[in-house]
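Write out the 3D structure for:
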Amino acid sequence: MVNIKNILKKDNLIGAAGLGAGSLGAEVVLSKVAPMLPDAAAKFAPALPILAGLILSNSKGFLGHVGKGMLAQGVAGVAKQYIPADTKASLGIGGDVMMGNVMMGESLSPVAGFSSDSYDYTSGDAGEMNY
């Protein structure tokens, strides 16, 4: 049985925070350092987080976890380049996530029965009472 006290130990929380920070750090390396590479080395840009992660992963404590997070993010980024498109689509890798596309901030006019002026979300023949 899973013991919640073991999950919420200080070392586990620091490790999780380090992995998350490493993942974000890998994105920063890709966005800030990769554009500074010469054209000949640009094809190796996705591997930069792996190199940075290898350097940091030998550290103790929080920095070691940051390095491991950078490694994980870097390996995933490089792997995404070499996975065929049809395999990515079947696995759901790299595409839009449904949770991110659920009409957040979009116009609701395509929704049947919606009228933004009257706030009436039912249609006349929906069998519901209009109050």
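Residues 9-88 form one domain.
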